[in-house]
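Sample pair:
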Amino acid sequence: MYTVYNYTRKLLVIFDVVFLTLIFEMFFYLRTGLVHSNILQETTFMVISILIVILYIFGSYELLVDEEQMRIIGMHLLSVLISLFIIIIFNYIFYIDRSGLFGRGILNGSFFIFSILSSCYRYFLWRWLKIQSAKKEWCFIVNKENCSVLWRELENKVFGNIIFLLYDTGIKRGDNISFSIPIVNAIDSADFDEKKYDYIVVATHDKLQKSISDKLIESKLSGKKVTDIISFYEYTFKKVPIWFLRDSWFFLSEGFSLFSNRTSLRIKYLSDFILSSILIILSAPIMLIATILIKLDSSGPVFFKQVRTGLDGNDFIIYKFRSMVKDAEKKGVQWAQKKDPRVTRIGKFLRLTRIDELPQLINVFRGEMSFIGPRPERPEFNIQLEKEIPYYQFRHSVKPGITGLAQILYPYGAGVSDAIEKLQYEIFYIKNYSITLDILILLKTIRVVVLGKGR
């Protein structure tokens, strides 16, 4: 559903803030007999701030209807438990609870009640979303060329009744388009009744029949949601479908503030420099331990150096902790694999925890990389990918990053098909860049590292 997910996320944040505040106040009154105090107000603010951030990181505000309800509740309860643990650690280090209230059971009791209450309203909201989604009617206006591509994306991802309007001559209801995908919910232009649909998505650049265009105009003026396929992809999947792109989209669509507003770019690069300087110092003990473990585990150098392609197509040397055996590419350049036999024992741990990426802080400090951006690829692969993937070179218009949108939203993969998928997320990031988006990606990267997902 188009906007209801955003409203639900905001509603969940409001519920969490209000109910935890009320529960905290209730336990405070039961333990002290006082209604309120300034110290309680400061402590509550710190507790709620930490809680909201942790819940966001672990996806407690993403009530996707394709997820199992018990998995959603389970992850939420785990998030609340992690939040409680982190708050206790913060209090021990920074002494945020100067009144000693945590020691009276107020914190533990509040979180226990909150975990039950918040799980209940998440369950009912998820059920409501699922029921509402099932009622929605979608109509996608497609042609023969893009029909199968779109179906693969929509299947099991968009809930509701999906209808394909096949206006090409020669396509009939029930035809197997390609990839042996039966389009059973298909109509032709004569059967198109715009009043039946909640959402209409135009998924073609071809000129539409006048009868269809008139009905779309009428739908738009009547307040129905009528949009193009690129906007639909951006909102629903957080990516830009390269197969539906045209050159004109790049200079006609809104966004791309990184290029139109150079101040944003300067702030991004300055933040990279300052943050990388701090993190190099803070992570020095971890990198020292990693160095010792690598030397003990296998023969070969500690650091892995490789040529990668960066900003404007310029090559640079990337630094990582070596996670593979010595001479891993003696048989030639190879794509990385999910369960790569070349990875060492300690290398598996370094990759899982992303410690192998820490030396890239040096690349960020030197201005060759950014914290957030497309992952840098090898020149040998770039030559191949630029020939096979349209607009692939666009990813080189910004500095490559240690992490990025593709790394948090797309599973592990290597090869041309995976490069296509990741490019779509990268174009979305470049178009919609903001400091807020960078912060959200960094927070989600924490979840990827903790859960061992992504790449």
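Residues 4-134 form one domain.
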